[in-house]
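Section 3.1: Structural characterization of target chains.
Under the original work plan, the team committed to producing a structural model for every single-chain target entering the pipeline before any wet-lab resources were allocated. The record below documents one such target. The sequence was received from the expression subgroup and is listed exactly as submitted; it comprises 166 residues.
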Amino acid sequence: MTASEHAAHLAQLNVATLLHPLDDPRMAPFVEMLDPVNTAADGAQGFVWRLKEEGAADATALRPSGEDVIVNLTVWETQEALWDFTYRSGHLEVMRRRREWFERHVEAHLVLWWLPAGHLPTVDEALERLADLRANGPSPRAFTFASSYNSAEAAQYFQTAPQGQP
């Protein structure tokens, strides 16, 4: 984890439904990209943390949303750092080819939210944020790149939220 002067970090979860099992030859190009893309993320400006299965290089074996759904959970210092990695690095090639490996999404598959610097989100916490986005739409609690909120807006939202509301 990198040190940061930011009081809040940005967490992101995305889920993808596999068209084929990861050991299927049709998935080989995706599997071959995992290590280079993860290594690039680990070294990217503003990267803080990513979920990995214990003893593994990634989280592809974790299946908290079903046997055919993989998850990616990361934390970044800023939204700009996450955007740059997602759309201005080798990760973009994976995005361009995603239809070869994953089902088309019919509901939100990506969620962003602010958390205190130093806090590492759990998979359950991340899935709850995704469920909130799907049920209620974007808010400072759960949003997307297209409907984003900054950390100050999120802090204000949580300060004014009624007691007992997450």
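The mean pLDDT is 90.
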